[in-house]
Amino acid sequence: MTNRGTERVKRGMAEMQKGGVIMDVVNAEQAKIAEEAGAVAVMALERVPSDIRAAGGVARMADPTITEEVLNAVSIPVMAKARIGHIVEARVLEAMGVDYIDESEVLTPADEVYHLSKSDYTVPFVCGCRNLGEAARRIGEGASMLRTKGEPGTGNIVEAVSHMRQVQSEIRRLSSMSKDEVMTYAKEIGAPFELLLEIREEGRLPVVNFAAGGIATPSDAALMMELGADGVFVGSGVFKSANPAKFAKAIVEATTHYQDYTLIAELSKDLGKAMQGLDMSTLEAHDRMQDRSE
Amino acid sequence: MTTIGVLALQGAVREHIRTVEACGVQAVEIKRKEQLNEVDGLILPGGESTTMRRLIDSYGFFDAIRQFGGEGKPIFGTCAGLILMTSAIEGQEQAHLGLMDMKVARNAFGRQVASFEAELKIAHVAEDFNAVFIRAPYITEAGPDVEVLATYQDRIVAAQAGHYLCAAFHPELTDDDRFIAYFVQMVKKSLQTLAS
């Protein structure tokens, strides 16, 4: 008996990425730089989040030519983004053989109410979350991996920090609850009851939770690991910096050795200019990608 | 007490630590090569082999792990760990640690959508082992000193050569500890041999 697409196989794939860095790339050349630097996977995109932000309009799944080019360029896993609730974009990516789909708020949502029923797919999914309720709803729908939403394309770590802390703090609160308090808590945060019981028992989420949305320097990556992230997504940070190859390598090493501060100091020397970055107060409500889904 | 290290540069480290501890011996995360002196056996976990190799080179683990094995201390590689141990890789000019005389094909069952679970018979270990294959490699050629422990659809997916053990699948992802217990026994036996 051979079983494909089981929960264990889908979640296990994300377990293998732990302690690693997943980088956004827009072509084969960038994908090779990422692989060479030690990335554990790449995310194939048409534009990195900061360019999506600058361009405005509707952001969709990348042109399959780009995804295919990246799939053929590297031997590490390739992820790609589908719009929230866009069943066909997700099925197309699955048919193309991408290794993981990000149902992502970085793209313009196709459905403002419903997310994909991710357990129906053979390919695993990663989704963003800002708090335990959101994390549990995505797991309930079948996500095999989570990441903080942060605020993509800003180069500002503040939102990712807040989301990681929020999830951790709510898990600690849940762990200290008696069983009869859990149902009311489930109602309050809109989370599946049985899943909360499991998280309470284990003291952690049943899937890995990476940091994403605003990581711009090796220290940012190490900070997120310090706060309990299982690994790191770097979007605009690498290829919007002055020296992508060097920057990528430094972020990978800082993620592995996140508590070796002498090393991080060394890695951070002469890296050139990091991406510009945006202050949250300059963002209008409609610019906040993290609020596009719940 | 017997202590087994898990190379903790990247990948499924926590699961191996849990399984080793479940077998009743001590487990240590190895982040620095000096720590190899403190352990009796080493596990190279699943993860991304390309990434792990970069980090092995960056932190001087390459010679340290080869020396560790050269002293007769057991090493067990799972998935990416198996790729690190082999002496040849299909389509690549160079292999990594070259500890086991065999040739390996990477991502040989296909991309993630082709990843699977299947029941295997593993020599010395189990008749009915639920094995989890994730973008898994398999062994295409095994040298004369390599004992084949398991095959899946006629492809070699687990092997042993003396104190070296490898699996293309992930025994650490299930609650079945029998395969890791087999490695723990190898480590205990080597302690007796090395002491005498």
Describe it for me?
The complex is a heterodimer of chains A (294) and B (196). With 294 residues, chain A is an alpha/beta fold. Chain A has 13 helices and 9 strands. Chain A has helices at residues 7-15, 28-37, 49-55, 64-73, 87-96, 132-141, 158-175, 179-189, 193-202, 218-226, 236-239, 244-256, 261-267; strands at 2-4, 21-25, 41-44, 78-83, 100-104, 125-129, 145-148, 208-210, 232-234. Chain A has an 8-stranded parallel beta sheet with strand order 8-7-6-5-4-3-2-9. In chain A, strand 4 (78-83), helix 5 and strand 5 form a beta-alpha-beta unit. In chain A, helix 2 packs parallel to helix 4 (64-73), helix 2 (28-37) packs parallel to helix 12 and helix 7 crosses helix 9. The model of chain A has no long low-confidence stretch (mean pLDDT 94). With 196 residues, chain B is an alpha/beta fold. Chain B is built from 5 helices and 12 strands. In chain B, the strands form 3 sheets. A 7-stranded mixed beta sheet of chain B has the order 2-1-3-4-12-11-10. A 3-stranded mixed beta sheet of chain B has the order 5-6-9. In chain B, strand 1 (3-7), helix 1 (13-22) and strand 2 (26-30) form a beta-alpha-beta unit. The longest helix of chain B has 18 residues, at 178-195. Chain B is globular, with a radius of gyration of 15 Å. The mean pLDDT of chain B is 95. The interface between A and B is large, with 38 and 38 residues. Strand 1 (2-4) of chain A pairs antiparallel with strand 7 (116-122) of chain B.
